[in-house]
Specification:
3 domains; Serine Threonine Protein Phosphatase 5, Tetratricopeptide repeat; mainly alpha; single chain; elongated
Length: about 625
């Protein structure tokens, strides 16, 4: 029996040595599947564009998606394919749509984790060939596997995987890591190295069609090449310097060319697009400017780093105070920490290059949304994807510096035990985060109890409770948050009006909508709900006036045309208006339950009033 067990172990060891990549992928798949299992039946949450959960999303032509999202059309085409998947059927089995959305996201996350494994193994090989002392005592494959598992199981990345709208970040990360892996393979003395550099350009091009935040990848490639191929003293030449400059300019020019192409090479449009990057900053945080955003991001990057090291206090929507000056204690404190780590990385760039590479990658991957591209949201956990891999590589560099040259086996076993405990803790925490995402109420209640004063969190929790007909709890949540604030955001007032309307308090609902429109005249939900309240109160002329203005301002808003047609359908004098509105709705939404109702109303108009008038174009 002992001989057979030894032979079996030897066979497994030989198979692992020959197929170490397959073995690593199998381990990553099994552990991440166990950690994310509760999330596979989670509903659509935190839908950015209000598209994915819409029954009309699968009717969108691919050409429209490409025109609407020129820098994200690849992930949105995959989302469109997911939306159409439930229409397929094999025999008596029909796939469940929501599960396939989550499975594709999870598969992309496994792919990124596998690329982290391959990239770490290759980097360790290259650095060992350079005889870097901090990595001589390490084995590349175990270090790569632990790095990939820490990345794949980290609970901070659960938001990116479960948050279905962030498939763009997952696709971008696949291209980002594949680009870095191709660059590392181009540094090895192998045949046809030029193909690896062509692959770098190809992955960057594909990534620019996934998410625009990949613009920092060329800088990351240059930083990696400089660390891996730093020339020794006395071997530098002008020819080599010119080659570095040419390669750097060629890699960095591609995002600039894409931006100019999207701006149609028109300089006024270029300046407008540069100023509008990130959208209106006051949307969720009043009085936010680009300068205060950049100052606040110093504390945000520090909080990202702290959550990466100790993932406690994770939330779908963090409450971050705006820093208006550099002379604030949080700014000075986190700025000193980040600057100190930067100085340490520079001092260790030759002795511990893994630490320097990891810290540089962490900052570069966060650069587009933490300084260069301001957005209304100050802090979101999915922005650390894939920057979190840099923190893991920093830990690998520290581990190599401390334990690689140690001759005491017990210290190494202690480090192995600590890594195993961290992985087990990450599995449990990711499982818990997956359970939090199982329903809208649990997700937003978890965020609201951590930040009860943040109005957007209270608004989303109130809407989730309202969909469950728990109007009393929804009203209590909104009133509690508004009591802690001096001003109210328009979308919160719209939700307050919806709560009053569901309780039958139409006058209070009307007042809430009117106050919301005073703050934001472009809020189409407030216009639509106010028109609906007017119709319920019997004020048909007011409702028609509101809907006519809304339909003219937003001609692609199908609900406005549908409600306008239904309100005008009972008045013989407004028969042409009703016919025109319902016809416009059917052009926008040709299929679905609302389309059937619109056709039924048109047929009723024909039977009641005779031949309908031609719709007005």
């Amino acid at each position: 029996m002992k001989g057979e067990a030894r032979r079996l172990i030897n066979v497994l060891v030989k198979w692992h040595r020959r197929h170490h990549v397959c073995a690593a992928v199998v381990v990553i798949v099994l552990l991440t599947l166990a950690a994310y299992w509760p999330s596979f039946r989670s509903p659509f949450q935190f839908d950015d564009f209000n598209d994915l959960a819409s029954p009309y999303f699968y009717l969108t032509p691919p050409r429209v998606l490409i025109q609407r999202y020129p820098t994200r059309w690849i992930p949105y085409l995959t989302l469109l394919a997911n939306a159409n998947l439930p229409r397929l059927q094999w025999g008596g089995w029909r796939p469940a749509g929501i599960v396939w959305f989550h499975l594709v996201n999870w598969g992309l996350h496994v792919t990124v984790s596998s690329l982290v494994y391959g990239l770490t193994v290759r980097m360790v090989y290259v650095l060992q060939r350079r005889r870097v002392a901090s990595l001589q005592g390490l084995s590349a494959r175990p270090v790569g596997l632990v790095s990939a598992l820490l990345f794949g199981l980290h609970p901070m990345l659960a938001q990116t995987v479960i948050y279905l709208s962030q498939r763009a970040a997952l696709c971008m990360a696949v291209c980002y890591m594949a680009m870095l892996l191709s660059a590392v393979r181009g540094c090895l003395p192998t045949a046809r190295r030029q193909w690896h550099w062509l692959a770098v350009v190809a992955w960057l091009t594909i990534g620019l069609c996934c998410k625009e935040t990949i613009v920092s990848a060329p800088l990351a490639v240059l930083w990696l090449l400089w660390l891996l191929r730093t020339p020794e003293r006395g071997r530098w030449s002008w020819r080599r310097g010119v080659a570095w400059v040419i390669v750097g300019l060629a890699i960095c020019a591609l995002p600039v060319v894409l931006f100019l192409h999207l701006s149609r090479w028109h300089m006024p449009a270029v300046w407008v697009n540069l100023r509008s990057v990130g959208g209106p900053l006051h949307a969720h945080t009043p009085d936010l400017t680009r300068i205060t955003y950049a100052i606040t991001q110093i504390t945000v990057v520090g909080r990202y780093l702290a959550l990466a090291l100790w993932p406690r206090g994770l939330s779908v929507d963090h409450d971050v105070p705006v820093m208006t000056t550099l002379w604030r204690a949080p700014v000075i404190g986190w700025g000193a920490v980040l600057l100190g780590l930067g100085l340490l990385a520079w001092v260790w760039r030759r002795r511990v290059p893994m630490f320097a590479w990891g810290y540089g990658f962490f900052l570069l991957a966060l650069l587009p949304q933490s300084s260069f591209m301001p957005t209304p949201d100050l802090m979101l956990e999915y922005r650390t994807y894939p920057a979190l891999a840099g923190v893991i590589w920093m830990g690998g560099g520290v581990y190599g510096a401390l334990f690689a040259s140690s001759r005491r086996r017990r210290w190494r076993w202690l480090a192995h035990g600590v890594c195993s405990a961290i992985l087990a803790m990450f599995i449990v925490l990711t499982w818990q985060r997956s359970c939090v995402w199982r329903s809208e109420v649990s997700l937003w209640y978890d965020a609201w109890r951590r930040a009860p004063q943040k109005q957007r969190v209270a608004n989303n929790l109130a809407n989730a409770l309202l969909r469950r007909n728990e109007t009393d709890l929804a009203l209590a949540v909104v009133q509690h948050t508004l009591s802690m604030s001096t001003t109210a955001l328009p979308h919160v007032l719209v939700t307050l009006g919806n709560i009053y309307a569901s309780r039958g308090e139409l006058t209070a609902a009307t007042n809430a909508y009117l106050i919301a429109l005073q703050h934001d005249r472009t809020n189409r939900d407030a216009w639509y709900n106010l028109s609906l309240i007017y119709a319920c109160m019997g004020l048909q002329s007011d409702a028609i006036g509101q809907l006519s203005w809304l339909a003219q301002m937003y001609p692609e808003y199908p609900d406005a045309w549908l409600l306008l047609g239904i309100v005008c359908a009972d008045d013989p004098r407004l028969q042409p208006v009703a016919t025109n509105a319902l016809t416009r709705f059917l052009r926008l939404v040709p299929k679905g339950p609302d389309a059937d109702a619109a056709r039924a109303t048109l047929e009723r108009l024909t039977n009641t009033f005779g031949t309908v008038a031609a719709p007005r174009q």
